[in-house]
Amino acid sequence: MLRDHYESGEMPVLAAPAGSAKSFSLCMHGIQATTASMVAELSEPQSGAPVVMWACLGAPCTGVYFPLYPDAILPPALGVGGERPSHKSPWWRMKEIQDKVARAPERFAPMVWKHLRPLENAMLEQAAELAQRVRNLRGEHRRATLSRFMAQNLVHMTRELGKVEAALSGAT
Predict the structure, then answer these.
(1) Phi (first) and psi of residue 67, to 5 degrees
(2) Paired strand residues for 102
(3) Which residue range forms the structural domain that includes residue 89?
(4) What is the pLDDT of residues 146-172, one digit of tens each?
(5) Which ranges of the chain have pLDDT less than 50?
(6) Would you list the DSSP string of 75-123?
(7) CA 90 to chain centre
(8) Is residue 126 part of a domain?
(9) How far is it, in rounded angstroms, from Cα 115 to Cα 113?
(10) Which residues touch 50 (CB under 8 Å, ≥6 apart)?
């Protein structure tokens, strides 16, 4: 739903005319673009399932949602960044990808999706399995398991971002 661009579906659109209704889609590719988004998955407290927040750095239509757990330790790389672009920052890397896709969405968005959508689907599946495994874990063991999963996902995401960057560089 957060990837909505009206009749274009998930396909990013070129900037809509200022003030038009289409400049205010959920993905915000009109006046400006979404800088990040999140979906929280809440469970019944007695179920033992972890709370998971699916975060996307950059625009949802070109980004990947990855799981974050508030009961775990956030991977340090997610805190890297500042006002200036940095290749060490996952957010800045996603921003650069988003900007390239915006120049020719029909051409570049499928290149991004080829790498990031399978990764996102795998993380969704693995997060569901993880939720079952950690239901009965408590304390530090639970925290370490969730932290390790986030760190592994960040490694996978970083690797796929490299593939996306290479594909876009070769196509421009």
Answers:
(1) -80, 135
(2) none
(3) 35-171
(4) 999 999 999 999 999 999 999 999 986
(5) none
(6) PGGGG---SS--TT-HHHHHHHHHHHHHHSHHHHHHHHHHHHHHHHHHH
(7) 10
(8) yes
(9) 5
(10) 43, 69, 71, 130, 131, 134, 142, 146
Interacting residues of 51 by C-beta distance below 8 A, sequence separation 6+: 40, 41, 42, 43, 69, 70, 71
Residue 60's pLDDT is: 86
pLDDT at position 111, please? 94
Supply the angle between the helices 139-171 and 90-103 in degrees, to the nearest 10.
30
pLDDT in the model for residue 32: 62
Q: Shortest CA distance to 23 belongs to which of 2, 6, 3?
A: 6
The reported pLDDT for the residue numbered 171 is 84
Would residue 30 count as lying in a domain?
Answer: no
- What token pair was written down for 169? 């560089």
Partnered with residue 36 across adjacent β-strands are 57
Closest CA to 111 of 38, 170, 24: 170
Which pLDDT score, from 0 to 100, does residue 19 have?
62
163 occurs within a structural domain: yes
Q: Domain for residue 159, yes or no?
A: yes
Q: Is 123 exposed, middle or buried (0-12, 13-18, 19+ CB in 10 A)?
A: buried
The amino acid present at 18, given as its one-letter code, is A
Give me the number of domains the chain comprises: 1
